[in-house]
TrEMBL record:
GO terms for molecular function: endonuclease activity; hydrolase activity; RNA binding. Gene3D superfamilies: 3.30.70.2660. GO terms for biological process: defense response to virus; maintenance of CRISPR repeat elements. The keyword Nuclease applies. Pfam families: Cas_Cas5d. Belongs to the CRISPR-associated protein Cas5 family. Subtype I-C/Dvulg subfamily. The lineage of its organism: Bacteria, Bacillati, Bacillota, Bacilli, Bacillales. Its EC number is 3.1.-.-. It comes from the Bacteria. Signal peptide: none annotated. This is pre-crRNA processing endonuclease.
Length: 215
């Protein structure tokens, strides 16, 4: 059992895309556990530990916002810089609809689970994380689902309260389980879902999911 931390994040817009949405992007009403983990790793990450999301508190009423954006229709090849084939974004541009969230704020409760736990390492990494949060430091700028939805972060305040809403969200993406041998032929990441529910403004993440993904 590792140390538990709480981090407050907020921003003007968010887009946690539902996986069942195809061309048009539609956001979950609440931040996903994988997005929360990505935020924490953007602030502080070491191979000596893993972040385990326990719960996500929704601090502001859920509001949707509809926009149209220009996006490219195909995936740009990773070797585009060295490829002799020309690629013009203007020829591959499409107008797509996105249903996003606006004016969001959350408190992420997470456990720092050390791979080889010792009291010395727990104190060291805990202090490093708290120091980075207090100074606003991060390895890369965390975002709320997509990179254009940047965020602010800090430690929670005493008067931060979850909204009173309760709702069934349905199947939500928990995380991806990657193959032990990435070089294996036809190796693919396996998505894991859980039946998400917002209980008086709090999304609780079932503990058994970590046993399935990390096991």
């Amino acid at each position: 059992m590792g140390q538990i931390f709480r981090l407050k994040v907020w921003g003007e817009y968010a887009l946690f895309t539902r996986v069942e949405a195809k061309v048009e992007r539609v956001s979950y009403p609440v931040m996903t556990p994988s997005a929360a983990r990505g935020i924490l790793e953007g602030i502080f990450w070491k191979p000596e530990f893993k972040w385990r999301i326990k719960s996500i508190h929704v601090l502001k009423p859920i509001q949707y916002y509809s926009i149209l954006r220009n996006e490219v229709a195909s995936i740009v090849p990773s070797n585009i810089a060295t490829s002799k084939r020309d690629y013009f974004t203007d020829d591959d541009r499409q107008l797509r609809h996105s249903i996003m969230l606006r004016d969001v704020a959350y408190i992420i409760t997470a456990e720092m689970r050390l791979v080889n736990p010792t009291m010395e390492n727990q104190i060291k990494y805990s202090s490093m994380f708290l120091r980075r949060v207090n100074k606003g430091q991060c390895f890369h700028r965390p975002y709320l689902g997509t990179r254009e939805c940047s965020l602010h972060f800090s430690l929670p305040e005493d008067d931060d309260q979850a909204i009173p809403d309760t709702m069934d969200i349905g199947p939500m993406l928990f995380d991806l389980k990657y193959p032990a041998d990435p070089g294996q032929k036809n190796a693919r990441a396996i998505p894991y879902f859980f039946d998400a529910k917002l209980d008086r403004g709090v999304l609780h993440v079932p503990e058994y999911l970590y046993k399935e993904v990390d096991g």
